[in-house]
Design brief:
This protein is of the alpha+beta class. 43% of the residues lie in helices and 17% in strands. The protein has one domain. A hairpin with a 2-residue loop joins strand 1 and strand 2. This is Mediator of RNA polymerase II transcription subunit 14.
């Protein structure tokens, strides 16, 4: 009799156990499904509510951005005058904090922040205006403007608007995934500037050879062993392709050798030519180096001549004229030294004197050419 009374209870317990087992299976499947669709849930999440506008309505009872007509519906792109100062101050604080967290290359001569915009500059090469908010992420850098400072007497090099936009977009994408974004920015723009510098040097030299210097100088492209030994490496400088994209597919910047005071007897043989020369090239550290074939002294300082290029105002002719003046001064010093050793000529220190007269480059140009 007792067993009969337990039968319904046993059936109920079995149903309850089956239900619990079914629930357990559903929970397991639900958890697995949620795990595999978590990326999709990001898109299905609740919208970001306009909290600032809600607070304004609650406190003031009005909404200043309410459009006057249907055509004006949309978010306002500009801040009101009383909102600009605190907003820009907060943005400047965020930009400064980001700069403190970021490794800044030592080559960057100027890094300043004004009104939420960081001004990053390398003297003679480029200037970039940066802020935060790349693709809506306030942890990533956004490029507002790129200006190249490399140039000639006629002014700096101008990039086309489309190329500058594509260049900036490509740099932004690389900076977004880099641990040291400012280093990426410097490396790309520095190598681009060095390419422009060497292109300008080669072009100016060709113009001089075809113009008034004619047969007074000659030039040839050079590739030293320390730059060409590892041609299988991946340290090729960056170039800006025809479509504006950056290209570093094995291109190497050649150096340029400029000979002057040419030996007419060996004018046709490059190997046996002993005439002095200037060599302009980009070294392994991607810095432009201008060297003379021999040690020469500056007539103004009597120290080793500095033949460095002014990247913001490249003038190959001025470098050649300075090299000639320094070489001439050095040779005259050698002649003076030899004459002083000759007791028949030099009886006292004042017998052989090297007179120095400051000669401007334009006068020297007329004398030497």
């Amino acid at each position: 009799m007792v067993g009969k009374n337990l039968v319904p209870l046993l059936h109920y317990c079995q149903q309850l156990a089956s239900t619990l087992s079914s629930h357990e299976t559903c929970f397991t499947q639900t958890g697995d499904s949620l795990f595999f669709m978590h990326e999709g849930l990001q898109q299905a999440r609740a919208p970001i509510f306009d909290v600032s506008s809600a607070i304004e309505v609650i406190h003031t009872g009005s909404y200043r951005r309410l459009p006057k007509s249907v055509e004006e519906i949309g978010t306002q792109n500009t801040l009101f005058q009383d909102e600009r100062k605190p907003t820009l101050k907060k943005l400047s604080t965020l930009v400064r904090a980001k700069l403190l967290e970021t490794l800044v290359p030592k080559e960057m001569s100027e890094v300043s922040v004004t009104d939420g915009i960081a001004n990053v500059q390398v003297d003679g090469e480029f200037k970039v205006l940066l802020t935060l908010g790349y693709r809506g992420h306030f942890s990533l850098w956004r490029i507002l403007h790129i200006e190249l400072l490399v140039g000639e007497n006629t002014g700096p090099i101008k990039l086309e608007e489309t190329r500058r936009y594509v260049l900036g977009d490509d740099i932004e994408r690389r900076m977004a995934v880099a641990d040291n974004p400012l280093t990426i920015l410097y490396t790309i723009l520095h190598e681009l500037c060095i390419s422009f510098v060497m292109d300008t040097v080669i072009r100016q030299t060709n113009v001089l050879r075809q113009g008034r210097w004619k047969e007074a100088i000659k030039s040839e492209l050079v590739s030293d062993s320390h730059r060409s030994a590892g041609q299988g490496g991946n340290n090729a400088p960056t170039q800006l392709g025809q479509d504006g994209e950056l290209d570093s597919s094995g291109f190497r910047i050649p150096g340029l050798k400029i000979n002057y005071w040419l030996d007419e007897r060996n004018s046709g043989s490059a190997e046996s030519d002993s005439s002095p020369f200037i060599k302009v090239e980009a070294l392994q550290d991607m810095q432009i180096k201008c060297q003379h074939s021999s040690f020469v002294l500056d007539p103004l300082t009597d120290k080793e001549a500095d033949l460095s290029l002014d990247l913001s105002c490249i003038d190959v002719e001025a470098i050649i004229l300075k090299a000639i003046a320094c070489n001439r001064h050095t040779r005259l010093l050698e002649i003076q030294r030899e004459l002083k050793k000759n007791t028949r000529i030099s009886l006292s220190p004042t017998d052989v004197v090297l007179k120095r007269k400051e000669v401007h480059m334009d006068v020297l140009q007329k004398v030497l050419i």
